[in-house]
Design a protein that fits this description.
Helix content: 25-40%
Strand order of the largest sheet: 1-2
Distance between the termini: 84 Å
Shape: extended
Order of helices and strands: HEHE
Structural class: mainly alpha
Radius of gyration: 24 Å
Oligomer: single chain
Number of helices: 2
Length: about 120
């Protein structure tokens, strides 16, 4: 039991440092798998009906997560916290071939051509 306490203590420290939920799970024994999906889907789709019970007792399969909506622009939220229908600027990736025009050819400039 002492080893479980130490493992849980360390896991909580890591989860806190990463600002991440702590969920003990096992796919081979089907422990907390459906609950993980419920939590993830409720976060992704901003659903308020996540009714997964938190388990904090050492020795049980731990489920500790923040079920409140984040408004500080952290992980899982929009950085600007504004309406989602506003257009957002996106940087275009560089073109292959060193040029800015499609097909890798250099983009036209206002500089006169060298003769």
């Amino acid at each position: 039991m002492e080893e479980k306490k130490e493992i849980t203590k360390q896991a909580r420290r890591f989860a806190k440092a990463m600002k991440a939920p702590l969920i003990f799970c096992s796919s081979s024994h089907s422990i907390n798998i459906q609950k993980i999906f419920k939590i993830v889907l409720s976060k992704v789709f901003d659903l308020k009906c996540c009714n997964v019970k938190k388990i904090t007792e050492v020795g049980d399969p731990i489920i500790e997560y923040d079920d409140e909506a984040k408004t500080d622009g952290g992980a899982g939220g929009d950085a600007d916290d504004g309406p989602d229908d506003e257009p957002k600027a996106v940087a275009a990736p560089a073109q292959a071939g060193g040029g800015g025009a499609p097909g890798g050819t250099p983009a036209a400039t206002d500089a006169p051509a060298a003769s």
